[in-house]
Here is the input.
Amino acid sequence: MSATLIATLAGLGATGGFFAGLLGFGGGVVMFPLLYYVPPLFGLARLEAQTVAAIVISQVFFSALIGGFAHLRSGRVQGRIALIAGSASSVGSFAGGVASRWTSEQFLLLLFGIVTLLVGLIMFLPAPRQQQEDEPIESVSVPTIPLASYSLATGIVVGFLGAGNFAFVPLLIFVLRVPTRIAIGSSLFIALMNSAAGFIGKLVIGQIPLIVSSVVVGGAAVGALVGEQAHRRLSTKMLRCIYAVVVALIALRVWITIWSYYI
Here is the structure.
């Protein structure tokens, strides 16, 4: 592995980790397009979508582990929400991770484009009436069945793409009315649980490139801690705006690629 490739992968991992700590989505939504589009800009070979998905889910697991515990320490993780959503999405993530072996690159890109477009549009909506940010975290609750059902479906997407946990933040905020900071902190623990299941699924079938993934994860570990520190200094409105803009830009780039397949 060349020094240029190592530096590029570590830098991309740090970027994904930063957004994981800042916005609570594991970093996969950022890492997938970065790993897919950036290496060729430095004269490096383009990674296949299936390989990117395998690297991403490794990075998401470790970013969620480090960033999640940082948010837990700051009192922004609701244990019941994380446990229910994490358990349900883990089942879906394992199934999606195994099934991804038989999917095409075009299908994965199309799925990624649809999910990012929907999430970006939702996050641009006016903020819903939420439970109060300053109320005790133990009193923040959501209905079990809707939470588990949505989480199972989202987990399947996570397993396919190695990304998809970014959908939990708008789900918790706009559908289940969870306070923004608690939604972000809890979603990292959800990502930790289902990315572990998806990682095992891809590892079992030999899709994880261990050396490349290790370099990306090393950068992500540093980025996640820096992102959590930045999270503390921003308002909830600003966090939602950044979230929406990041996802919208990613969706635009992915749809440009999808369009190129059909013209």
